[in-house]
Write a structure and sequence with these properties.
Oligomer: single chain
Number of helices: 0
Shape: flat
Number of strands: 37
């Protein structure tokens, strides 16, 4: 989130003010809400000081907040012995003198199966970094009873003997096949907080695919897709899940490893420069029959260009000319335009050049 709503309340006061980070004092009445933290970087501390007074006394109250990245957290991996039960917990705590703080009362937070006997958990409270962790299954635990837990390391990879090393964070690249013109990926890393709806906007990768790269992934990745207009693909309510980093393709509800299979196309795309408000392309594929006059309507592109893509099927060339549908033609002075191979071309001022106009 890009800020939180903070409600200011007072009782039995004749006047009340608040300030943010010792700045200007603003008057308020009980029940007023303010938004704090918007536009600040993660890790920024925001202090709200409230002053209330009446004829008898003046009271100050200070509230301090730290803006935390909702996708940040402490990731822990544990490989359980095969003899342990399938339900595994991570009890995370820290000590400050005689005071003990815990993420959740014993036995702690239930871990999620990553693969085989490997389990993961994400702790959202970063203050427990450097604390302690004890793993258990209800009957067994490590370290043992009355023993100090293992020191908690972010991305720590543990077994019954303690820390084996750190899990390397990696990148997940997702190719998503869709008919949507716009797509977002909404995701959660290792059971942590989900991205704010609608998620991260994906970019076009061609051939109906949208692409997104998600960095700093360790453990599992849960995700779904939407078009930003209320249409969702959440895999039938189960969401999609990956348990390793790398490149993956999602098509028709199925996940395959690697990039999409390359699609060999045999087509010609023409960018035609004209001042006409409408343009048609009248053409013959491979020297065959011409299209019916006026031809096929071209779509509006940028900077005065009209665009069309023509499938050659098994042919290797195209002959074309252009018109506005109102009797005005550009047939290259009766020579027409000849395109000798599949590809993308620009036609401007009677000249053909290879490549797109923009």
């Amino acid at each position: 989130t890009d800020g939180i709503i903070f409600k200011l309340t007072t009782s039995n006061s004749t006047a009340a003010t608040y300030s943010i980070n010792d700045g200007k004092n603003y008057k308020f009445t009980s029940g007023k809400t303010i938004k704090i933290g918007a536009g600040c970087e993660y890790g920024t501390k925001i202090t709200v000081t409230v002053k209330a007074e009446n004829n008898d006394a003046t009271t100050f109250k200070t509230y301090t907040f730290t803006k935390v990245d909702p996708l940040s957290g402490l990731n822990v991996t544990f490989t359980k012995p095969s003899s342990w039960n399938s339900t595994v917990y991570a009890y995370v705590y820290k000590e400050n003198g005689s005071k003990v703080s815990e993420v959740q009362a014993w036995p702690g937070v239930a871990m999620t199966v990553s693969s085989g006997n490997k389990y993961t958990v994400r702790i959202d409270d970063l203050s427990f970094d450097g604390g302690y962790v004890i793993f258990s299954d209800g009957n067994n635990q490590t370290p043992g009873a009355r023993e100090t837990g293992f020191v908690l390391n972010n991305n720590g990879n543990y077994d019954v003997n303690g820390l084996m090393g750190n899990v390397t964070e990696g990148e997940v690249v997702v190719y998503y096949y869709t008919g949507w013109s716009n797509a977002n990926i909404h995701y959660s890393v290792n059971g942590g907080a989900w991205t704010a709806v609608p998620g991260i906007n994906m970019t076009s990768a061609g051939n109906g695919y949208m692409k997104a790269a998600i960095k700093n992934v360790s453990g599992k990745l849960n995700f779904c897709f939407n078009d930003g207009k209320g249409n969702w693909d959440n895999n039938g309510g189960s969401d999609y899940e990956l348990k390793e980093t790398g490149t993956f393709t999602i098509k028709d509800g199925k996940i395959t490893k690697g990039e999409p299979a390359k699609v060999e196309t045999n087509s010609i795309t023409i960018y035609y420069s004209t001042g006409w408000s409408n343009a048609n392309c009248h053409y013959s594929i491979g020297g065959g029959t011409w299209t019916s006059v006026p031809g096929v309507s071209m779509t509006n592109g940028k900077n005065g260009y009209k665009v069309i893509t023509i499938d050659l099927n098994t042919a290797t060339n195209l002959t074309a000319c252009f018109n506005d549908g109102n009797g005005n033609w550009d047939n290259n002075y009766s020579k027409n335009y000849y395109f000798g191979a599949a590809g993308t071309y620009t036609v401007s001022n009677g000249n053909i050049t290879s490549g797109a106009a923009y």
